[in-house]
């Protein structure tokens, strides 16, 4: 249950936005923190229950996000690890190839089905594991991208959310405003399949944005409060104006964290340590 989009609003800049959808019984996540994992500095919010994360970026300019995979062919098992544990296992990596190599050494059957989205150097790789079989898909970040899932079934939300994404990008261009409009959008008569979703037992609980420039990565995170008319935990549909919500282009309002990218990512080559 989540929605992620990727745009390049300016040359050599990437912007990732992520709506985290969760059951109301799950405790709120913790704001982003800075940690050193495998010799690399990383930024990511933390799942308060499982201790993992759903989105992260490290100082190599490598960004990752994980979504549940809810398809007819998926084979959920008796997972012993939260899917959020995957990303911390991979944040030591310098690039996509190293992530893929590391995945080969992980027992994927310890996790329920998932989609791992990896960004590095203007390319995007999607790694899917359905419980028994894994495969990868490759994309260019030069074109706007959208990935989404739902506990109601991924196929149920894929088409309407993708059509909306394409419509907003066509109307406003691949801009931060367009991306924010998409992630805040609610269909007043279909809140359960909306991008900023709400249903009896689940809702969009937070939004995270990562902006990657040649020399830094900035992560902004904010809880997603109930919108006007949302009836959290109550049967029935939210009674609110679609027009009002589609004009909500306010980005997450949390305090941003900045990570300076390592010299090799910035193209400066290897830097010799200074001996003292």
Note down, in words, how this protein is organized.
The protein has a single domain (2-260), classed as Penicillin V Acylase, Chain A. It has 5 helices and 14 strands. The chain has helices spanning 86-90, 96-104, 154-172, 176-183, 242-246; strands spanning 2-7, 14-23, 30-37, 40-46, 55-58, 63-68, 114-120, 123-129, 134-140, 145-149, 198-199, 202-212, 216-223, 257-260. The strands form 2 sheets. Strands 1, 2, 10, 11, 12, 13 and 14 form a 7-stranded antiparallel β-sheet that branches. A hairpin with a 6-residue loop joins strand 1 (2-7) and strand 2 (14-23). Helix 3 (154-172) packs antiparallel against helix 4 (176-183). It is globular, with a radius of gyration of 18 Å.
The overall pLDDT, averaged over residues, is 86
Spell out the helices and strands N to C: EEEEEEHHEEEEHHEEEHE
Unreliable spans: 233-247, 268-276
Helix coverage percent of residues? Answer: 10-25%
In the CATH hierarchy, the architecture is: 4-Layer Sandwich
Count of individual beta strands: 14
Radius of gyration over alpha carbons?
A: 18 Å
Shape: globular
Quickly describe the structure:
The chain is of the alpha+beta class. The protein has helices spanning 86-90, 96-104, 154-172, 176-183, 242-246; strands at residues 2-7, 14-23, 30-37, 40-46, 55-58, 63-68, 114-120, 123-129, 134-140, 145-149, 198-199, 202-212, 216-223, 257-260. It has a single domain (2-260), classed as Penicillin V Acylase, Chain A (4-Layer Sandwich).
Defining traits:
276 residues, alpha+beta, Penicillin V Acylase, Chain A, seven-stranded antiparallel sheet, 17% helix, globular, disordered C terminus
